[in-house]
Amino acid sequence: MKAAWYERQGPALDVLVVGEMDDPSPAPGEVRIRIAASGINPGDIKKRNDAFGYGMAYSRVIPHSDGAGVIAKVGDGVSEEHLGRRVWCFGAQSYRPFGTAAEFTTVPLHNAVPLPDGVPFKAGACLGIPGITAHRAVHVAGDLRGKRVLVHGARGAVGALAVLFAERAGATIVQENADHIVTVDFATCPFDALAPDGSIAAYATSDPHPTLPFWPLLFRNARLYLLGSDDFPLEARLSAARELNAMLAEGWEGPRIARTFPLGEIALAHEAVESGDGAGASSSS
What is the pTM of this model? Predict the structure, then answer.
């Protein structure tokens, strides 16, 4: 198969390679997806750049956890009735070496979610990390019916979806006196906007060592949730997937896609996401 990979971390143009690899075989309980579109997320950039300082867990990495395509092969224990189904997938490169920046990827069956008819593959490829993170950030604090939610960073992919999920959960979007705050940047979170007995869900930070206003939060009896998308409980991921599909069935068009690139230009796609010029899907043709 044609694939993109890196064997050392660093700048996209220096380390990303496009070439041929053996087709992957699905393990028991897994499916092989013929990838039509591969979604790029900031986390993919951070892993390639070693932004977290953990190095490489694998000697070769095919990047990208999100993608969409058609199930082309099933592993032992998976019914052949799944063959030919259109799906979007998540977690392809979560504690696994080979993601979706290739003609094929393999994932556990529960990570391959049916893609509703009429929804483009490129839209499906952008659902996983943004949608599941936003859903978890909104719902981790419990029932939001009648509650006030502040989404700090609502213009981003996760933030925009968090607004939709909060409204669907019966919450009101506010700018202050919030019962629950969802923040893209814990370092600049508007802590003063939190109401007593409120909660904060953070999924990123611009400063790895941010200052925490301990006493003001203590006197509010605040709860703090730090969310790493690779480690969400499976049921939380599946719950998010069900709601994302429900939204698509209701006519939602999916996340906005700024640009698309062929697989051979994956380094340029990574640079576009890294610079903030655009995020989207990298086609695997």
Answer: 0.94
